[in-house]
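Dear colleague,

Thank you for sharing your sequence with our group. We've completed the structure prediction you requested, and as agreed, I am returning the results in plain text so they can be pasted directly into your records. Please verify that the sequence below matches your submission; if there's any discrepancy, let me know and we will rerun it promptly.
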Amino acid sequence: MLFNNSRESLRRGWLAALKKVQTGALLTALETQLADLIREHPEYHAWLERGDDALQAEFTSQSDRTNPFLHLSMHLALREQVSMNRPQGIARIHTTLSARSDAHDTEHHMMEALGKALWEAQRAGRLPDERAYLEDLERLVTSALGRKDQ
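Please find the predicted structure tokens below.
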């Protein structure tokens, strides 16, 4: 299993995909998705190439560093949501926003809403509130439409 519930397993999955790309090894479907996301984030390449050192890195809200594993995983989660249209309506929102901006930039905006939904759920000890999450995403659409009309 590529990912289990441990932070180290998740991080090793990203590093293994990068290593396979570098060596020209065959990738699984999931590893192909991971490799694509890594390619889209050249700002993380040197850091990820640190290998085992990257596994042990700590990221806190007080640090100035972005957690590349979290950032890349948020992209992956969002893409999975869009591909399954779960929650219902997210695929339409993604399409609408992507028509007005770069798809990757769109994901970054949508990831803010996803991060908020996950943070609120974790803080409250419950599942994410899909309705509130979709409302935040709809506000992005409204904002993007307003900017387009100006």
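Summary note from our side: Helices lie at 7-23, 29-39, 45-48, 52-56, 68-84, 90-98, 103-124, 130-149.

Kind regards,
the structure core
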